[in-house]
User: Fold Ribosomal RNA large subunit methyltransferase I from Porphyromonas crevioricanis.
Amino acid sequence: MNDIAKLTLKAHKEESLKRFHPWIFSGAIAGIDREIDEGDLVAVYSANGDPLGIGHFAPSTIAVRMLSFDTGETINRDFWLKRLSAAYKLRESLGLISNENNSYRLVHGEGDNLPGLIIDVYGDTAVMQAHTLGMHNVAGLIAELLPEITGGAVQAVYYKSANTLPHMADVEVEDGFIFGNNSNVNVARENGLQFYPDWKRGQKTGFFLDQRDNRALLKAYADGRRVLNMFCYTGGFSLFALAGNAEKVVSVDSSSKAIDLAVRNVALNFANSTRHQAVAEDAFRYLEQIEKGAYDLIVLDPPAFAKHRKVLHNALKGYRRLNTIAFEKIASGGVVFTFSCSQAVSREEFRQAVFSAAAAAKREVRILHQMTQPSDHPINIYHPEGEYLKGLALYVD
Ligand code: SAH
Assistant:
């Protein structure tokens, strides 16, 4: 670790690192032995001079994201190969990768001991996002390793970091292919259903893979039900409701671009289906105007209402209001799938908001399932911040 900068912590600030928490906050740092740039590697030492590991530096609140707690580790091609292979092997061992399901998250940041890096795979194309300059600096190298670690399955890598790198970072990045070039219209599969992942224009990497298990669960509840999929985006839940024999499915999103994607994805799987309808409309406005009892399965999967704890109060009010209207409107014997993807909102706080909503709507509500993110979005046990998706499947009498 001699050829890289040495960062020393203030006294007693090594405790969280000894419990393998991968972040060092700026206030914990006593000093760095030389001038360094954002994204550089630093070797981290306690105030007593004990080596603690190695990480990527950034001049921000989270000043270091740890890559390794092995003080003998060298961060080179072999290191990235080892980490990426471990991530791929985990997905393979989960039985996630098959012809029927060729879409999965290959790298989930801290959950794969690769803080600052997200890689989603859609068939032969990987979509990669760097959230730190440290990861940005090795993006080319990582992209080149992906075909190797996936046994040739990944043939092209689209780099989509123009909006994920820190604003202060002094880099100009354009989204585009950095390895191979898949200009074909790419169709990917989730549990047997097809969709177009739109990494160019879509949100995040183009498709929300984190709802895979919950969509599969929804399919089991869809038979004969009239389904309302609020905040549908690319229509993931709608596809599985249709596959589960829903009587009808209405997909609602305020973005007409999202509605176009949902319509395209439905047509890809259910040509000429008369069971699906898509509406570009604000969710609250739509819910207000529907009749009571018009639907017996409602999905509420809104965007993160709270990006940080400061706006928590308003976010909880938002969840309460949204869920209250859904409880008021759903038919007797109906099921509500309700979610929060706000990392800042805890599982307990979300459940409390839904509880208040049920009471406000004066409905009898029972919890059938407690949902979370799927196994290709693993949560590092030392980094509880990695848990963000929470959901409840509720039976409403
Ligand atoms: N359920 C989706 C993901 C939802 S992402 C899936 O399974 O893939 C959140 C979506 O909410 C986005 O598509 C966004 O356009 C939409 N949205 C945001 N605010 C909205 C509002 N007020 N009314 C309706 N849709 C909204």
Q: What stands out?
A: The radius of gyration is 23 Å. DSSP finds ten helices and 20 strands in the chain.
